[in-house]
């Protein structure tokens, strides 16, 4: 019984070419659709800025919890700083090194360095405890 077209390793070459051309056509159509429907990424930001400007002109200042978050963050950093001071783990060069690395990563919050130093202290203890529980208790 003859087949419909030439075969290569038992696979119909014309059928493979048809499937590949279909995939290429769909990729081109998807690219055209994505290019024609691209939204302006700054449009939402400009709209929000214009709304905020109108609110400020009208004297309406939307209440934000940003100030509350900042004080909570400072209180948490103060607590971590005091705990690290009790364990005598704070060294000026260690803090400056952590802050420098954070700044290189694009994070400008200096209080985050205290959390990183605390995590360096706490994580090995926590992970070691989890490993011991996994090895000896869970089995």
Q: Could you list some keywords that capture this structure?
A:
2 strands; flat; 139 residues; two-stranded antiparallel sheet; mainly alpha
Low-confidence regions: none
What are the secondary-structure elements, in order, as H or E? EEHHHHH
* Number of strand elements: 2
Contiguous helical run count = 5
Radius of gyration: 30 Å
Give the CA-based shape: flat
Would you give an account of this structure?
With 139 residues, the chain is mainly alpha-helical. 73% of the residues lie in helices and 3% in strands. The protein has 5 helices and 2 strands; from the N terminus they run E-E-H-H-H-H-H. A hairpin with a 2-residue loop joins strand 1 and strand 2.
Task: Write the SSE topology.
Blueprint: E1 7-8, E2 11-12, H1 13-36, H2 43-58, H3 66-86, H4 92-104, H5 112-138
Antiparallel strand pairs: 1-2
Short description:
The protein has 139 residues and is mostly helical.
């Amino acid at each position: 019984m003859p087949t419909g077209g030439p075969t290569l390793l038992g696979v119909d070459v014309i059928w493979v070419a048809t499937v590949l051309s279909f995939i290429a056509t769909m990729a081109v159509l998807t690219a055209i659709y994505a290019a024609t429907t691209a939204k302006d990424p700054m449009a939402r930001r400009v709209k929000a800025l214009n709304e905020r400007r109108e609110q400020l002109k009208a004297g309406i200042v939307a209440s934000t919890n940003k100030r509350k978050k900042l004080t909570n963050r400072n209180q948490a950093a103060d607590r971590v700083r005091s705990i690290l001071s009790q364990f005598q783990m704070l060294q000026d060069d260690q803090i400056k090194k952590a802050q420098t690395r954070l700044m290189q990563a694009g994070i400008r919050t200096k209080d985050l360095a205290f959390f990183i130093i605390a995590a360096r202290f706490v994580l090995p203890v926590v992970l070691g405890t989890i490993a011991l529980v996994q090895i000896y208790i869970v089995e």
